[in-house]
Amino acid sequence: MEKCSLRPNNVRSYPCREAYGLIFVYPGDMKNFEAAVFPEIPSATDRNYKVRYLDRLVRCHFSFMHENLMDMNHQFLHRRLMGGIKTTLLETRQGENWIEADYTFSRGSGRQPLGEKLILGKKEKPKERDLMTVRTGYPYQTLKFQTGGSTHPALDLWNVYVPRDKEQRTNHTYGLMMIRRPSIPGLIELFWPAIVWFTNHIFAEDREICELEQIAFDQQGADRNHEIFPVIRSLRRVLTENGVSRED
């Protein structure tokens, strides 16, 4: 990384790097700079993918965002848009500063919505199951979805949640959503407005539930949720052991 100044009157110059159409800034303790991990997002520069930039303010602690994406049982929340989806956890892997979970899905009721169909496309091998892998590699989070029999993701998502206030009650979510281009040239551009509409509504429901969780936390003055899902219990350990408290 090189040193760059983000503001004309900024006293301190922060290490930063421009990549994937974003500027990555390291604002932490320089003693830990060498251990900082720069994200590698190959799909963001792959012409086989169309990239959508995500940029939104969410009024909750960033850990709620990690939990929401990691726990795919929350697909029930999106039943109005996606129909009845059954989520099956396949496997979990974890390390000191990361955790990832594999899921597959089956449709219990309703039809596949157009937006989902446009994003995921058709299975290459209909008899093989789809695979979704969600990973928190602190501080980033990724999601990859491969349709049955495919060797590459149809959907590749990268997110980072940046606290906006000292109390960490809001975060700014920045992300890259890479969608595999279909074999017919120009088709994804034609249907891009439908994809944006669909994903915007999914994101809106996610934001609403995460903000409600923050409200409940603040009203109760503590986390009174008796979490039993092993994936989320392990995720919380990763976030707690690798995060920096607001007092620091």
Describe the protein in words.
The chain is α+β, with helices and mostly antiparallel strands and 248 residues long. The chain has two domains: 38 residues, no CATH class; 201 residues, Naphthalene 1,2-dioxygenase Alpha Subunit, Chain A, domain 1 (Alpha-Beta Complex), CATH 3.90.380. The strands form two sheets. Strands 4-10-9-8-7-6-5 form a seven-stranded antiparallel beta sheet. The chain has a three-stranded antiparallel beta sheet with strand order 1-2-3, with no helix packed on it. α1 packs antiparallel against α5 and α3 crosses α4.
Return the average pLDDT rounded to an integer.
87
Gyration radius, in Å: 19 Å
Number of strands: 10
Distance between the termini: 24 Å
What profile does the largest beta sheet have? 7 strands, antiparallel
Whole-number total of structural domains: 2
Number of helices: 5
The best one-word shape is: globular
Q: What structural class do the secondary elements suggest?
A: alpha+beta
* Beta-strand residue fraction: 25-35%
Question: In sequence order, what are the helices and strands, one letter per element?
Answer: EEEEHHEEHEEEEHH
In a few lines, what is going on in this structure?
It is built from five helices and ten strands, in the order ββββααββαββββαα. It has helices spanning 62-70, 79-82, 114-120, 187-220, 230-242, and strands spanning 2-4, 14-19, 22-25, 49-58, 84-94, 98-109, 131-137, 140-146, 155-163, 171-180.
